[in-house]
Design a protein that fits this description.
Blueprint: E1 2-8, H1 14-24, E2 27-30, H2 31-38, H3 44-53, H4 66-73, H5 77-105, E3 110-114, H6 118-121, E4 129-134, H7 137-148, H8 152-160, H9 165-168, E5 174-177, H10 182-199
Parallel strand pairs: 1-3, 1-4, 2-3, 4-5
């Protein structure tokens, strides 16, 4: 099995690239989805987060209000690091379990994990190849403002809290620039998929 990391800044287009790779036949998992699952009520990370950040981050139904929590951690580096220390180990464990399941099911699979902080946490080292998705900064700001209904200041604050794309690209085996829209991004993604498949041909039948 070929393990591929997919990363990039917020609102750069990672989710679309992941969807194309999945469509092309890759096994795919989104770390954000896993992160949402590990902070659900009853999960270990949930209690740790509530104990640290307080009941004010909860909705009426007891679930964590991710927008309220995000507003706290993106303005406070110490709070952000604390949240990451709670959530990331659980997300990492879930990813390891998923990768093991894929390997057993289809030894010739290309397994792609999408995670925004893969480089920052060092978890990129466990992948065979790393794809970094990026776009022009101004476009990234506009996308984030439209997607999250942010002001420009809020969008810049979120982007500034992450490692710059220029730094992420230094770690990339492959890079995808999404600045020119969906069609061009799909073309780049398909090209990289062909390169990955050439590195790791599908030579065995998956388990039924």
């Amino acid at each position: 099995m070929l393990k591929v990391g997919l990363t990039g800044g917020i609102a750069t287009g990672k989710s679309y690239v992941l969807s194309v790779l999945s469509e092309l036949g890759c096994e795919a998992i989104d770390a954000d989805t896993v992160a949402h699952q590990v902070i659900e009520p009853g999960r270990p990370a949930y209690l740790d987060i509530v104990n640290h950040f307080g009941d004010e981050i909860l909705n009426e139904d007891g679930a964590i209000n991710r927008a309220a929590l995000g507003a706290i951690v993106f303005c406070n580096k110490d709070a952000r690091e604390k949240l990451n220390a709670i959530v990331h180990p659980r997300v990492y464990e879930a990813q390891v379990e998923w990768l093991d399941q894929v390997a057993r099911r289809d030894p010739s699979a290309i397994a792609v994990v999408d995670a925004a902080l893969m480089i920052e946490t060092g978890s990129y080292r466990r992948f065979d190849k790393l794809i970094v998705v990026y776009c022009d900064l101004e476009l990234q700001v506009q996308r984030l403002m439209e997607r999250n209904n942010f002001t420009r200041e809020q969008a810049m604050s979120r982007i500034s809290a992450q490692m710059p794309s220029e730094e992420k690209l230094k770690f990339a085996d492959y890079a995808i620039n999404t600045s020119d829209g969906f069609e061009d991004t799909r073309r780049q993604t398909e090209n990289i998929y062909e390169k990955l498949r050439a590195l790791y041909p599908a030579t065995s039948e998956p388990e039924i």
